[in-house]
Design goal:
The protein is mainly alpha-helical and 313 residues long. The protein is built from 13 helices and seven strands. The chain has a three-stranded mixed β-sheet with strand order 1-5-2, sandwiched between helices. It has a two-stranded antiparallel sheet with strand order 3-4.
Length: 313
Amino acid sequence: MFIPIAGWVGKIAKVDKLIPDELLALLKTQGINLAKQLNTKTRNAQLRVLQQCAELLEIFAKGRQAIKEFFTKLGDDIGKWFVSNKRTFENLVAKAKNIFKKDSKTDELFRDISKKFIVKNHGNLSKTKFLKIAKQIEKHFGTKLHWVDRNSYEFKELYKKWYDSPIYAVFHSSTFKNGRYGITLEGPAIYFFEGVHKFGGTIKLTTYTLQHELIHVKLWYKMTKEFPELSPLYKKIPRWLDEANVIAEFLQQNAQKIGKWEMDDILNDLKVLNKIFRDNPAYREGVKKIFGKEQLELKDFENWDLSKFLEKL
Protein backbone atom coordinates (compact mmCIF):
# COMPACT_ATOMS: atom_id res chain seq x y z
CA MET A 1 0.00 0.00 0.00
CA PHE A 2 1.23 3.47 -0.88
CA ILE A 3 1.30 6.13 1.85
CA PRO A 4 0.70 9.68 0.56
CA ILE A 5 3.32 11.68 2.44
CA ALA A 6 3.91 14.73 0.26
CA GLY A 7 2.86 16.97 3.16
CA TRP A 8 5.26 15.31 5.57
CA VAL A 9 8.48 16.21 3.76
CA GLY A 10 8.81 19.68 5.26
CA LYS A 11 8.24 18.39 8.79
CA ILE A 12 10.60 15.49 8.29
CA ALA A 13 13.38 17.88 7.23
CA LYS A 14 13.29 19.42 10.73
CA VAL A 15 14.42 16.16 12.29
CA ASP A 16 17.02 15.28 9.69
CA LYS A 17 19.62 14.74 12.41
CA LEU A 18 17.63 11.75 13.63
CA ILE A 19 16.80 10.19 10.27
CA PRO A 20 19.46 8.84 7.85
CA ASP A 21 19.80 10.54 4.47
CA GLU A 22 18.72 7.38 2.67
CA LEU A 23 15.35 7.28 4.44
CA LEU A 24 14.77 10.99 3.91
CA ALA A 25 15.51 10.52 0.22
CA LEU A 26 13.01 7.66 0.04
CA LEU A 27 10.25 9.68 1.71
CA LYS A 28 10.96 12.70 -0.44
CA THR A 29 10.92 10.62 -3.63
CA GLN A 30 7.55 9.11 -2.78
CA GLY A 31 6.14 12.56 -2.08
CA ILE A 32 7.46 13.86 -5.41
CA ASN A 33 6.03 10.85 -7.24
CA LEU A 34 2.62 11.49 -5.75
CA ALA A 35 2.76 15.16 -6.74
CA LYS A 36 3.70 14.24 -10.30
CA GLN A 37 0.83 11.79 -10.55
CA LEU A 38 -1.63 14.36 -9.24
CA ASN A 39 -0.45 16.85 -11.86
CA THR A 40 -0.60 14.44 -14.77
CA LYS A 41 -3.46 14.71 -17.23
CA THR A 42 -4.01 11.01 -17.86
CA ARG A 43 -7.15 9.49 -16.40
CA ASN A 44 -5.42 6.25 -15.35
CA ALA A 45 -2.79 8.10 -13.33
CA GLN A 46 -5.40 10.19 -11.55
CA LEU A 47 -7.41 7.07 -10.72
CA ARG A 48 -4.30 5.40 -9.30
CA VAL A 49 -3.62 8.34 -7.00
CA LEU A 50 -7.22 8.35 -5.82
CA GLN A 51 -7.03 4.61 -5.17
CA GLN A 52 -3.86 5.04 -3.10
CA CYS A 53 -5.46 7.79 -1.04
CA ALA A 54 -8.60 5.72 -0.64
CA GLU A 55 -6.60 2.83 0.82
CA LEU A 56 -5.32 5.05 3.60
CA LEU A 57 -8.77 6.56 4.20
CA GLU A 58 -10.19 3.05 4.44
CA ILE A 59 -7.87 2.31 7.33
CA PHE A 60 -9.05 5.40 9.20
CA ALA A 61 -12.66 4.48 8.50
CA LYS A 62 -12.22 1.12 10.26
CA GLY A 63 -11.65 2.84 13.56
CA ARG A 64 -9.09 3.17 16.28
CA GLN A 65 -7.84 -0.42 16.33
CA ALA A 66 -7.15 -0.51 12.58
CA ILE A 67 -5.30 2.82 12.80
CA LYS A 68 -3.26 1.54 15.74
CA GLU A 69 -2.37 -1.67 13.89
CA PHE A 70 -1.40 0.25 10.78
CA PHE A 71 0.98 2.61 12.57
CA THR A 72 2.35 -0.20 14.74
CA LYS A 73 3.28 -2.10 11.58
CA LEU A 74 4.68 1.05 10.02
CA GLY A 75 6.78 1.66 13.13
CA ASP A 76 8.02 -1.95 13.07
CA ASP A 77 8.99 -1.65 9.42
CA ILE A 78 10.86 1.61 10.01
CA GLY A 79 12.52 0.14 13.10
CA LYS A 80 13.70 -2.88 11.12
CA TRP A 81 15.04 -0.54 8.45
CA PHE A 82 17.03 1.40 11.05
CA VAL A 83 18.47 -1.79 12.57
CA SER A 84 19.39 -3.17 9.15
CA ASN A 85 20.94 0.14 8.11
CA LYS A 86 22.91 0.37 11.37
CA ARG A 87 24.33 -3.13 10.91
CA THR A 88 25.34 -2.34 7.33
CA PHE A 89 27.08 0.84 8.51
CA GLU A 90 28.89 -0.98 11.34
CA ASN A 91 30.10 -3.64 8.90
CA LEU A 92 31.45 -0.96 6.56
CA VAL A 93 33.26 0.80 9.40
CA ALA A 94 34.83 -2.51 10.48
CA LYS A 95 35.98 -3.13 6.91
CA ALA A 96 37.37 0.41 6.63
CA LYS A 97 39.34 -0.02 9.87
CA ASN A 98 40.88 -3.21 8.50
CA ILE A 99 41.74 -1.53 5.17
CA PHE A 100 43.26 1.55 6.83
CA LYS A 101 45.53 -0.55 9.06
CA LYS A 102 48.14 -0.71 6.31
CA ASP A 103 49.03 1.15 3.15
CA SER A 104 47.05 0.14 0.09
CA LYS A 105 48.15 0.31 -3.56
CA THR A 106 46.70 3.83 -3.71
CA ASP A 107 48.83 4.96 -0.78
CA GLU A 108 51.98 3.41 -2.24
CA LEU A 109 51.42 4.89 -5.68
CA PHE A 110 50.65 8.32 -4.26
CA ARG A 111 53.81 8.21 -2.15
CA ASP A 112 55.92 7.27 -5.16
CA ILE A 113 54.51 10.08 -7.29
CA SER A 114 54.96 12.56 -4.43
CA LYS A 115 58.61 11.62 -3.94
CA LYS A 116 59.43 11.70 -7.63
CA PHE A 117 57.52 14.72 -8.87
CA ILE A 118 56.26 16.89 -6.02
CA VAL A 119 58.13 17.10 -2.72
CA LYS A 120 61.39 18.15 -4.39
CA ASN A 121 59.80 21.20 -6.00
CA HIS A 122 58.96 23.50 -3.08
CA GLY A 123 57.60 26.96 -3.72
CA ASN A 124 55.86 28.15 -6.88
CA LEU A 125 55.24 25.51 -9.52
CA SER A 126 56.14 26.08 -13.16
CA LYS A 127 53.64 25.14 -15.82
CA THR A 128 56.09 22.61 -17.31
CA LYS A 129 56.41 20.72 -14.01
CA PHE A 130 52.67 21.03 -13.44
CA LEU A 131 51.91 19.36 -16.78
CA LYS A 132 54.28 16.48 -15.97
CA ILE A 133 52.53 15.87 -12.67
CA ALA A 134 49.09 16.27 -14.26
CA LYS A 135 49.96 13.52 -16.73
CA GLN A 136 50.84 11.13 -13.91
CA ILE A 137 47.73 11.90 -11.86
CA GLU A 138 45.38 11.43 -14.80
CA LYS A 139 47.11 8.19 -15.75
CA HIS A 140 47.03 6.61 -12.30
CA PHE A 141 44.06 8.27 -10.57
CA GLY A 142 41.79 9.16 -13.50
CA THR A 143 41.69 12.78 -12.39
CA LYS A 144 42.45 15.77 -14.61
CA LEU A 145 44.43 18.75 -13.33
CA HIS A 146 43.51 22.13 -14.83
CA TRP A 147 45.59 25.30 -14.66
CA VAL A 148 43.18 28.26 -14.76
CA ASP A 149 44.47 31.76 -15.45
CA ARG A 150 43.57 34.78 -17.59
CA ASN A 151 44.87 33.01 -20.70
CA SER A 152 42.72 29.91 -20.22
CA TYR A 153 40.22 30.18 -23.08
CA GLU A 154 38.49 26.95 -22.09
CA PHE A 155 37.85 28.29 -18.57
CA LYS A 156 37.25 31.94 -19.45
CA GLU A 157 33.91 32.07 -17.63
CA LEU A 158 35.32 30.27 -14.58
CA TYR A 159 38.23 32.71 -14.39
CA LYS A 160 35.82 35.66 -14.44
CA LYS A 161 33.92 34.16 -11.52
CA TRP A 162 37.16 33.43 -9.69
CA TYR A 163 38.32 37.03 -10.15
CA ASP A 164 35.40 38.20 -7.98
CA SER A 165 35.63 35.36 -5.45
CA PRO A 166 39.19 33.96 -5.39
CA ILE A 167 40.30 30.61 -3.96
CA TYR A 168 43.46 28.55 -4.47
CA ALA A 169 41.90 25.43 -5.96
CA VAL A 170 38.84 23.19 -5.95
CA PHE A 171 38.45 19.42 -6.37
CA HIS A 172 35.37 18.02 -8.12
CA SER A 173 35.04 14.25 -7.68
CA SER A 174 32.28 14.29 -10.31
CA THR A 175 30.56 16.70 -12.70
CA PHE A 176 28.16 19.09 -10.96
CA LYS A 177 27.33 22.77 -10.59
CA ASN A 178 29.86 24.45 -8.36
CA GLY A 179 28.09 26.15 -5.46
CA ARG A 180 30.56 29.01 -5.23
CA TYR A 181 30.60 29.95 -8.90
CA GLY A 182 27.24 28.69 -10.11
CA ILE A 183 28.64 26.95 -13.18
CA THR A 184 29.03 23.27 -13.99
CA LEU A 185 32.55 21.92 -13.59
CA GLU A 186 33.51 18.52 -14.94
CA GLY A 187 34.98 15.85 -12.73
CA PRO A 188 36.90 14.09 -11.52
CA ALA A 189 39.22 17.07 -11.81
CA ILE A 190 41.09 19.69 -9.81
CA TYR A 191 40.96 23.33 -10.89
CA PHE A 192 44.00 25.36 -9.81
CA PHE A 193 43.88 29.14 -10.07
CA GLU A 194 46.63 31.65 -10.74
CA GLY A 195 46.37 35.39 -11.25
CA VAL A 196 45.57 38.76 -9.73
CA HIS A 197 42.05 39.00 -8.29
CA LYS A 198 39.88 42.05 -7.80
CA PHE A 199 41.04 42.57 -4.22
CA GLY A 200 44.55 43.23 -5.52
CA GLY A 201 46.14 40.03 -4.26
CA THR A 202 48.09 37.56 -6.39
CA ILE A 203 47.60 33.81 -6.20
CA LYS A 204 50.35 31.52 -7.44
CA LEU A 205 50.18 27.75 -7.75
CA THR A 206 52.57 26.19 -5.24
CA THR A 207 53.57 22.59 -4.61
CA TYR A 208 51.86 22.82 -1.22
CA THR A 209 48.52 23.75 -2.81
CA LEU A 210 48.98 20.99 -5.37
CA GLN A 211 49.72 18.39 -2.70
CA HIS A 212 46.84 19.62 -0.54
CA GLU A 213 44.33 18.94 -3.31
CA LEU A 214 45.97 15.65 -4.30
CA ILE A 215 45.53 14.35 -0.75
CA HIS A 216 41.80 14.93 -1.22
CA VAL A 217 42.04 12.96 -4.46
CA LYS A 218 43.91 10.13 -2.78
CA LEU A 219 41.21 9.64 -0.13
CA TRP A 220 38.43 9.81 -2.74
CA TYR A 221 40.19 7.33 -5.02
CA LYS A 222 41.00 4.90 -2.23
CA MET A 223 37.46 4.83 -0.83
CA THR A 224 35.51 4.88 -4.10
CA LYS A 225 37.73 3.30 -6.75
CA GLU A 226 40.21 0.97 -5.08
CA PHE A 227 37.65 -0.10 -2.47
CA PRO A 228 34.26 0.85 -4.00
CA GLU A 229 32.42 -0.90 -1.18
CA LEU A 230 33.52 2.01 1.03
CA SER A 231 31.76 4.59 -1.18
CA PRO A 232 28.80 4.97 1.23
CA LEU A 233 31.25 5.80 4.02
CA TYR A 234 33.13 8.30 1.86
CA LYS A 235 29.87 10.13 1.12
CA LYS A 236 29.30 10.56 4.86
CA ILE A 237 32.66 12.26 5.46
CA PRO A 238 31.95 15.97 6.13
CA ARG A 239 34.10 18.63 4.51
CA TRP A 240 35.79 19.56 7.79
CA LEU A 241 36.98 15.99 8.43
CA ASP A 242 38.29 15.71 4.87
CA GLU A 243 40.25 18.94 5.43
CA ALA A 244 41.50 17.75 8.82
CA ASN A 245 42.72 14.56 7.17
CA VAL A 246 44.80 16.67 4.76
CA ILE A 247 46.55 18.40 7.67
CA ALA A 248 47.22 15.02 9.29
CA GLU A 249 48.68 13.70 6.03
CA PHE A 250 51.11 16.62 5.73
CA LEU A 251 52.29 16.04 9.31
CA GLN A 252 52.69 12.33 8.65
CA GLN A 253 54.70 12.98 5.48
CA ASN A 254 57.06 15.22 7.46
CA ALA A 255 57.37 12.66 10.28
CA GLN A 256 58.11 9.87 7.78
CA LYS A 257 60.56 12.16 5.95
CA ILE A 258 58.59 11.78 2.72
CA GLY A 259 58.29 15.55 2.49
CA LYS A 260 59.56 18.70 4.16
CA TRP A 261 56.45 20.81 4.22
CA GLU A 262 56.65 24.23 5.84
CA MET A 263 54.98 24.36 9.25
CA ASP A 264 53.68 27.85 8.44
CA ASP A 265 51.61 26.39 5.57
CA ILE A 266 50.27 23.59 7.76
CA LEU A 267 49.38 26.03 10.56
CA ASN A 268 47.61 28.24 8.01
CA ASP A 269 45.48 25.26 6.94
CA LEU A 270 44.67 24.62 10.60
CA LYS A 271 43.73 28.29 11.03
CA VAL A 272 41.37 28.07 8.04
CA LEU A 273 39.85 24.85 9.41
CA ASN A 274 39.16 26.41 12.81
CA LYS A 275 37.54 29.38 11.09
CA ILE A 276 35.23 26.90 9.33
CA PHE A 277 34.19 25.62 12.76
CA ARG A 278 33.49 29.14 14.01
CA ASP A 279 31.43 30.01 10.93
CA ASN A 280 29.50 26.74 10.56
CA PRO A 281 27.43 25.50 13.56
CA ALA A 282 26.92 22.04 12.00
CA TYR A 283 30.67 21.52 11.55
CA ARG A 284 31.27 22.87 15.04
CA GLU A 285 28.91 20.27 16.46
CA GLY A 286 30.58 17.60 14.33
CA VAL A 287 34.09 18.25 15.59
CA LYS A 288 32.81 18.54 19.17
CA LYS A 289 31.12 15.15 18.85
CA ILE A 290 34.33 13.46 17.72
CA PHE A 291 37.06 15.42 19.54
CA GLY A 292 35.13 16.90 22.45
CA LYS A 293 36.18 20.43 21.50
CA GLU A 294 35.21 23.15 19.02
CA GLN A 295 38.75 24.07 17.88
CA LEU A 296 41.59 21.74 16.91
CA GLU A 297 45.29 21.91 17.81
CA LEU A 298 48.33 20.23 16.27
CA LYS A 299 48.37 17.63 19.04
CA ASP A 300 44.94 16.42 17.89
CA PHE A 301 46.58 15.07 14.73
CA GLU A 302 49.05 12.83 16.51
CA ASN A 303 48.60 9.11 15.69
CA TRP A 304 45.89 10.10 13.21
CA ASP A 305 43.66 7.26 12.00
CA LEU A 306 40.73 8.44 9.88
CA SER A 307 38.93 5.10 10.13
CA LYS A 308 38.43 5.40 13.89
CA PHE A 309 36.44 8.60 13.37
CA LEU A 310 34.09 7.10 10.78
CA GLU A 311 31.99 5.19 13.32
CA LYS A 312 31.20 8.48 15.06
CA LEU A 313 29.73 10.11 11.94
